[in-house]
């Protein structure tokens, strides 16, 4: 188990673990088995302890919560291979999934709040010569908003959930549980508004643009710095969407040579947007820089990762937007800045 997951499980289980220090039995109410049970029930009733039963069940009796933050249909053997290997090595699933009971469907007993990937893996094993493997669950009583926060907390500790899946989950939760109030949601999940905004921006990208990427799940919040500016102006947005559709149609038609990853795709979209910018007024065309074959306005490195964007403020000034999380490195950004200084602010002779 990774250190992230160990830390998460430690936090999650801290409220239900019993004290490990020796207990002074003379202070316990009652005696024997019945007395101990009475004391435990009293602790649970008072809130001093939490009783969340765990058990191994048939995964076929568990359905995935319709608001689960993972795209269950996108799971496959490659995405679950490490977990499958771990379960096989241990002979069982070690970290329980968090579920709640259901009573509205005779085909299911539980609803999976956290643990869709574990559910898929156990099902796969049972269908592939390991019927003895069962699904370990921990039963909770949760509202939908509580279920969302627990699911988010668990998956923040995992690296296999993509930014796009998390972003879409946040956008749904914003309307479902927080009445569109981003500040309230950020407070409830204990994150900054700026951090949350980047995920929401990713989830709000046009669907046709997202689907045009070779693998939409490669999209990250670090790419928002390059994509958001080229979607603001109507003419640039239209050009970007036209280019996205063209790339998608060429791929569907078997045309080779198109973008094969997210940075290459973003580079093509930036070029399409800047082509529109260059066709604007002469003043704008004069203030826009060029580098490495990339169109004016946004400067990218040789791999297509955006470094910075230059906008003409007036005849005496430029406005720079630095994409410090756009995928490029510092050396390339420094080189781009030096080029700009040499072009717009030449050294005295």
From TrEMBL:
<feature type="compositionally biased region" description="Polar residues">
    <location>
        <begin position="1"/>
        <end position="18"/>
    </location>
</feature>
<dbReference type="InterPro" id="IPR004437">
    <property type="entry name" value="ParB/RepB/Spo0J"/>
</dbReference>
<comment type="similarity">
    <text>Belongs to the ParB family.</text>
</comment>
<feature type="domain" description="ParB-like N-terminal">
    <location>
        <begin position="55"/>
        <end position="156"/>
    </location>
</feature>
<dbReference type="InterPro" id="IPR003115">
    <property type="entry name" value="ParB_N"/>
</dbReference>
<dbReference type="InterPro" id="IPR037972">
    <property type="entry name" value="RepB_N"/>
</dbReference>
<dbReference type="InterPro" id="IPR036086">
    <property type="entry name" value="ParB/Sulfiredoxin_sf"/>
</dbReference>
<dbReference type="Pfam" id="PF18090">
    <property type="entry name" value="SoPB_HTH"/>
</dbReference>
<dbReference type="GO" id="GO:0005694">
    <property type="term" value="C:chromosome"/>
</dbReference>
<dbReference type="GO" id="GO:0007059">
    <property type="term" value="P:chromosome segregation"/>
</dbReference>
<feature type="region of interest" description="Disordered">
    <location>
        <begin position="1"/>
        <end position="35"/>
    </location>
</feature>
<dbReference type="InterPro" id="IPR050336">
    <property type="entry name" value="Chromosome_partition/occlusion"/>
</dbReference>
<dbReference type="InterPro" id="IPR040873">
    <property type="entry name" value="SoPB_HTH"/>
</dbReference>
<dbReference type="GO" id="GO:0003677">
    <property type="term" value="F:DNA binding"/>
</dbReference>
<protein>
    <submittedName>
        <fullName>Replication protein B</fullName>
    </submittedName>
</protein>
């Amino acid at each position: 188990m990774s250190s992230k997951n160990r830390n998460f499980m430690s936090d999650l289980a801290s409220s239900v673990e019993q004290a490990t220090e020796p207990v002074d039995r003379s202070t316990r109410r009652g005696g024997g088995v019945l007395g101990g049970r009475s004391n435990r029930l009293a602790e649970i009733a008072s809130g001093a302890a939490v009783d969340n039963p765990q058990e191994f069940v048939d995964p076929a009796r568990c359905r995935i919560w319709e608001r689960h933050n993972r795209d269950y249909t996108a799971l496959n053997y490659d995405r679950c291979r490490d977990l499958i290997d771990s379960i096989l090595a241990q002979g069982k699933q070690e970290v329980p999934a968090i579920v709640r009971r259901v009573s509205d469907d005779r085909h299911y007993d539980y609803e999976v709040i956290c643990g869709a990937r574990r559910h898929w893996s156990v099902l796969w094993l049972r269908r592939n010569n390991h019927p003895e493997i069962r699904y370990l669950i921990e039963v909770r009583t949760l509202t939908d908003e509580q279920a969302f926060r627990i699911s988010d907390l668990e998956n923040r500790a995992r690296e296999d959930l993509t930014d796009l899946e998390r972003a879409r989950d946040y956008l749904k939760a914003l309307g479902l549980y927080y009445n569109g109030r981003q500040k309230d949601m950020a407070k409830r999940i204990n994150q900054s508004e700026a951090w949350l905004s980047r995920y929401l921006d990713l989830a709000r990208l046009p669907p046709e643009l997202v689907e045009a990427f070779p693998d939409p799940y490669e999209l990250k919040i670090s790419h928002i710095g390059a994509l958001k500016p080229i979607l603001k102006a109507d003419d640039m947005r239209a050009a970007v969407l036209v280019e996205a559709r063209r790339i998608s149609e060429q791929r569907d038609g078997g045309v080779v040579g198109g973008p094969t990853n997210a940075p290459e795709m973003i580079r093509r979209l930036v070029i399409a947007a800047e082509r529109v910018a260059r066709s604007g007024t002469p003043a704008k065309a004069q203030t826009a820089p060029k580098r490495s074959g990339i169109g004016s306005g946004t400067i990218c490195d040789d791999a297509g990762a955006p470094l910075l964007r230059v906008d003409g403020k007036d005849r005496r000034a430029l406005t720079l937007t630095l994409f410090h999380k756009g995928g490029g490195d510092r050396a390339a950004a420094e080189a781009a800045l030096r080029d700009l200084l040499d072009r717009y602010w030449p050294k005295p002779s």
